[in-house]
Amino acid sequence: MRWWRPKSREQDLDRELRAHLELEAEEERESGLPADQAQFAAQRHLGNTTLLKEAVRESWGWASLERLGQDIRYGLRLLRKNAGFSVVAILSLALGIGANTAIFGLINALLLKSLPVRDPQSLLFIAKQAEGGVDPSFYYETYQRLRAEQPFFQELAAYGERVRMNVSVDGIAESTVGQLVSGNYYSVLGVPPAAGRVFNPDDDRVPSAHPVAVISYQYWQRRLGGSAAAIGTKVLIDGTPFTIVGVTPPGFFGLEVGDAPEVSVPIMMQPQVMPDKENWLGRAHNTVDWLIIFGRLKPGVTIPQATGGLQVLFRNIQTELATEIGLGKASWRQEWVEAKLVLVPGGAGLSHLRRPYAEALYILMGVVGLVLLIACANVANLLLARASARQREIALRLAIGASGARVIRQLLVESLILSGLGGVLGVGLSYWVSALLVRFLSVGGPMIRLDLSPDWRILGFTAAISMMTGVLFGLAPAMRGTRFELSPALKQGGRGSSPPQRFARALAVTQVALSLVLLIGAGLLVRTLHRINDVDGGFPRDHVYTVSLSPRGSDQKNGPNGPRLNRIYLDLLGRVRAIPGVVSASLAGEPPTMRGYGRPFKALDGRQFLAHQNQIYPGYFATLGSSVVQGRDFGRADIAEGAPLVAIVNETLARKVFPGENPIGRRIVCTGQISIGESGSPCEVIGVARDIAYATLKDQPQNAIYMTFLQAPTGRGAMELIVRAAGASADVHAQLRREIAAIDPYLPAFVVRSLATEVDAALMRERLLALISTVFGALASLLAAIGLYGVVAYSVSRRSQEIGVRMALGALPHRVLALVLGETLLLAGLGIACGLPVALAATRLLAGFLYGIKPGDPLVLLAGASFLLATAAIAGYIPACRAARIDPVVALRDE
Amino acid sequence: MPNEYPDRIQLLQGTLDMLVLRTLLFGPAHGHQIAKHIQRTTDDLLQVEHGSLYPALHRLERKGWIAGKWEIAGKDLKREFKYYRLTSAGRKQLVVEESKWKKLTGAVARIMWPAEER
Predict the structure, then answer these.
(1) Is residue A101 part of a domain?
(2) The dihedral formed by the CA atoms of A302, A303, A304 and A305, expressed in degrees to the nearest 10
(3) Do A517 and A781 touch, CB atoms closer than 8 A?
(4) Does residue B69 sit at the A interface (CB-CB below 8 Å)?
(5) Does A543 map to a domain?
(6) Residue in B50, B55, B79 nearest the CB of A19
(7) Which of A68, A187, A364, A518 has the smallest C-beta neighbourhood within 10 Å, fewest atoms?
(8) What percent of chain A has pLDDT over 90?
(9) C-beta of residue A434 within 8 angstroms of C-beta of residue A462
């Protein structure tokens, strides 16, 4: 009916009340009151209009957006007015929230995110139960038979292990990460091509007959300029021409999180792309488990049904195969046949990064969580100080009818604006931090590629922690800010009455306590890193170089190649040793930083044990900076064809397996596989070598056995050349390259790395934890120092009159200085006293990351505490000086 | 606020809603009329605090039991008032409140005057 609509409920209410007042006044006039008095009487009957409106607004409900908008506008205006305060608060929150988002982003990418494939939840991996986890790899023939005979899955697909491929495009060779996939890999996953086509089952039928490749989107862009003409181009992969048939979508990085194969070829091409390995497609000679099998269940089949059925099928297949291959009575035959199968949900993909880093990431999450708490405490302290400065304003609002809840709400909106802005800034910061972290993680190893693009989980997480921090640091000051006697607050000029000092002090003490926890954690991790690095006596690793070699002809299939390779390697060693500046050189089957897994061994007197096994050439220990402490190193005679088999064990093995006995002269035999498909023959222990700590990185060094290549003629494919130079010299570097190139001009691109880089890469997790916890420990101490400074400075400014009286009565400046400094140190001391038990409890979580140091190490505790005390002293010194300089005359006149 | 009229009775918590709904059963009315109606009908015994009447009206409107609409009225037909009328949901609610009230007064009566109850 009305031709206009009220602009807002607020106006509507105003009109309604105005009409009421007019009517009421009219009635009063009619009952005989003069006009002005009638107006007043009407108003009196209605009561406090502001309060009434407030009550009506209340009935409109919490979610009134108009009011929220009003609060936000007001809050923003206030924040602009106090720019300095706002910047400090927002920055410290952004730092805290950003760090949390970054670590959560990594956790998300590594542990939570679903694969970009069709219906990731229904994807299942088949795996064998193994000690401490699952082993998802299977023998080629097992896969083929399972695939053909199983009735539970719609289809089974597979992919092989990561392969380093030497890919040349237009004559430019580059070492690239590749993988082998089954023909139905893409169709089972539901990954469509971004260009060209993906593989189909016909691409994967006959061994060595399908030279086709699918490349990743990133590789397409990087190496082939993303051009459509790239489809159909020929590239050389390890010397074999392959045709690129298609490109995968940009978001698809394969099934292993953190690992992004750039070139995929059919499984049938294994012999071509792995020239240094045996032919794994055949049935003879080997039982290498290398294929990871996955699929989706048929509708109506449950996981327990499928697991049970597969188990039976698997045992039959393995028993058949054991006979066909002729495993005979090999000790691991039973393990091979009787493995227990499990189905692993594959929605989030598999990750080799997951195991070593998951725990570390959770620890880091705790660290950044503490930092955020400290930042919150800081902002709460700032708000508290400001709330007491704003007491007059708040008192005024309460006096003219605002309810306490209403004012608290206003203050909360302000703190939420702060945390919201901090959150927005934090997301930007986190993107940068996590990119940095990933780059850091990739040092010295293959590039780790993680999909870090923010998704709903990350944004939700950030929004949630921003909200939480906003309420956390805003609520207490808001509640305190509205709880006081009105009239004294109104009377005093903006100074307000009794300050909430006790609360502020408690916050400062908490900050110190939390910082102590972080510092002690950081101290322990840094000491761990030092310990590990110190174990080999601190020889300069910068001057030790390692090179991975796989010369042509190191193909394991050709047995007769053994002696020839031996000659090549000895020749190479001779040339390298002759380079001026080279002190020593040796070769090994595995890089020294390889974290080994145990192979089963037996001493001929029956004792059984597990040990990490590496095949080496003479001079290995001296080159690495280790040494043989008992017996002797291998000599030239030990590696001559037909020489008796000999071995060197490490100190740990000698101590554990032969306690109190002389291990020299003992005979041991490997009861598992020495190398691919080879069981060992008995060999004699001729020496004991020092433990090499960074090879095991456990609190307990692992058993290790070193053997010559006579033990098994295979395993010489990928060799590690280790060279020790007298000093850093570009000359040695260049000559090394020349000599290596001389043994095989067609050698795939190789990299000369220093052992320092290798060790750094191997110690990645330890370094990352130490670095991040140190950075955040320092940051936390800084925040705590600012908090302490704020509290003490505030207290000095409030007590200036008291201090003035003291000085007027004869207190000397240095006594005043000591008074204020003492107060600061008392707070810090309290914080340390509270923090110590927390730190002791919290650092126990770190036990698994420590080496050669216990969680409660007194030295670290002492260092952390003294560092904090020193920081506190500096934080307190500034206000203390200001207190000492107070002029009693001015201070007394002030009031 | 001290009570100006000591013989008046403060409204029981929650009864105001019911009284407003019952008043509107006679037809649309604005806030002032509602207050006056309740006061007059009870011979000024029940005092309707204006400070609680308007919040109550807006609360009832929000719940959908009454609906407000601006109408021209007054002696000279020049002033606008927000007239509230009962919605069908409001009618149902009135029945509910009424029966609740009857139960309550019945229960109270049984305790206060047990003899009168046979």
Answers:
(1) yes
(2) 50
(3) no
(4) yes
(5) no
(6) B79
(7) A68
(8) 15
(9) no
Beta bridge partners of A588: A616, A720
- Contacts with A, B 47-66, CB within 8 Å: 49-52, 54-56, 58-59, 62
CA distance B8 to chain A (A): 15
| pTM metric for this prediction | 0.64
A645 touches chain B (CB under 8 A): no
Question: Are B50 and A52 inside 8 Å of each other by CB?
Answer: yes
Same domain, A410 and A368: yes
All residues of chain A having their beta carbon less than 8 Å from the beta carbon of residue B70 are 2, 6, 15
A209 in reach of chain B (CB within 8 A): no
Whole-number average pLDDT of chain A: 80
User: Which chain B residues touch A1 with a CB distance below 8 Å?
Assistant: 69, 71
Q: Do A47 and B50 touch (CB under 8 A)?
A: yes
Element (H, E) at A158: strand A153-160
Q: So what's the pLDDT on residue A497? A: 41
User: Which residues between 373 and 432 in chain A have a beta carbon less than 8 angstroms from any beta carbon of chain B?
Assistant: none
| Per-residue pLDDT tens digits for A360-414 | 778 888 888 888 888 888 888 888 777 777 777 788 877 777 777 778 888 888 8
Same domain, A92 and A133: no
Last residue of a domain, one of A319, A345, A371: A345
Look at B59 and A12 and tell me if their CB atoms are within 8 Å.
Answer: no
**Domain closes at, from A701, A722, A747:** A747
Q: Which residues contact A756 (CB under 8 A, 6 or more apart)?
A: A541, A542, A544
DSSP tag of A113: P
Q: List the single residue in B50, B52, B80 with the smallest CB-CB distance to A19.
A: B80
In a domain, A320, yes or no: yes
Our count of domains for chain A comes to 5
Q: What is the per-residue pLDDT across A152-187, written as a single tens digit (0 to 9) for each? A: 999 999 998 778 787 888 877 777 888 999 999 999
Tell me, yes or no, whether A190 and A131 share the same domain: yes
**Model confidence over B88-102: pLDDT tens digits?**
999 999 999 899 889
Residues of B in contact with A22 (CB under 8 A): 79
- What is the share, in percent, of chain A residues with pLDDT greater than 70? 82
A495 alpha-carbon distance from chain centroid: 48
Asked whether residue A3 is assigned to any structural domain, the reply reads no
**B71/A56 Cβ within 8 A:** no
Q: Kindly state whether residues A147 and A180 are assigned to the same domain.
A: yes
Contacts of A8 in chain B (CB under 8 A): none
Q: What residue numbers bound the domain in which A281 lies? A: 120-345
Same domain, A150 and A222: yes
Instruction: Using alpha carbons, select from A132, A144, A152 the residue that is nearest to residue A290.
Output: A144
Residue pair A270/A286 in contact (Cβ under 8 Å)? The answer is no
Interface contacts A/B by beta carbons within 8 Å: 59
Query: Do A514 and A468 share a structural domain?
Result: no
Q: Distance (Å) from the C-alpha of residue A404 to the closest C-alpha of chain B?
A: 18
- Identify whether residues A283 and A166 lie together within a single domain: yes
Whole-angstrom distance, CA of residue A478 vs CA of residue A480? 5
Which domains can be identified in chain B, with CATH numbers?
A: 15-112 (1.10.10.10)
Q: Which residue of A has its CA nearest to B62?
A: A60
Torsion of CA A301, A303, A308, A310, to 10 degrees: 80
- Residues A703, A777 within the same domain: no
Distance from the Cα of residue A708 to its chain's centroid: 38
- The b-or-e profile of A376-391 (16+ CB within 10 A means b, else e) is bbbbbbbbbbbbbebb
Q: What element of type H or E holds A600? A: strand A599-603
Q: Is A607 helix (H, G, I), strand (E, B) or coil?
A: coil
